[in-house]
Amino acid sequence: MKSFFNLLKTTISKISHWGAKNVINFIYFELIYFFRFNSRTLFGIQNNELDYEIKDDEEFIEYIPTPFFLINKSAKKINLNLTESCLVDFGSGAGRALEFFINKEVKFCKGIERSSKLTELARLNLSKYDNVELFHMDAENYKIDNKDNIFFLYDPFGIETIKKVIKNINYSVKISPREINIIYVSPRYNEIFKSAFKVIYEDVNKFNLGVVVFSN
Ligand SMILES: C[S@@+](CC[C@H](N)C(=O)[O-])C[C@H]1O[C@@H](n2cnc3c(N)ncnc32)[C@H](O)[C@@H]1O
Q1: Ligand 1: which atom is nearest the Cα of residue 71?
Q2: 2-215 architecture in CATH?
């Protein structure tokens, strides 16, 4: 009940900034995928209720599922073929984005999540699929594999972790040159990504709602 109340609070405060078209899209896609997936991803957990300590540079971390309409939009804007790709969700929560991309026939996907409770819930939600692996760990310590080529982030963590993840992606691409895409939803640290990667799509409003897709 509390987690649903958290979600409601965050959603109401956000959608008051979204505009009518986005609100209609939000409701439409939530209903479609609620019935299609029947998974437990629609709830919210705030800072003080997460089962790990937030880092010094992070004033705000929460689990809120990525709105389906934004995941759907981002999937249309990447320039790599999903069926040949391995997608990594940094801060995968209860597995919502992963389930979406599995159903879009991504070849393989991985979720990196610091909360053990959320990792276990994602395991339950995704137990029917065999092309997904979940890692209960800090995203900054995930060693990027040379097959990982699409990276997904929904405003997951603070600036220092973002910088380390970018460094890890750049290092991996330097060692194993390949084309990559990065999907960044609600891109709080957009400028840092822009200094490291090329924007191939951007639609973000002044309240930080939207999606940016980068390539190298
Ligand atoms: C906004 S939620 C992302 C939701 C998810 N991508 C989805 O598909 O719905 C952000 C998530 O990042 C996780 N997180 C925060 N810091 C992290 C870190 N350093 N490493 C891994 N996960 C982290 C949080 O526990 C939370 O579940």
Answers
A1: 8
A2: 3-Layer(aba) Sandwich (3.40)
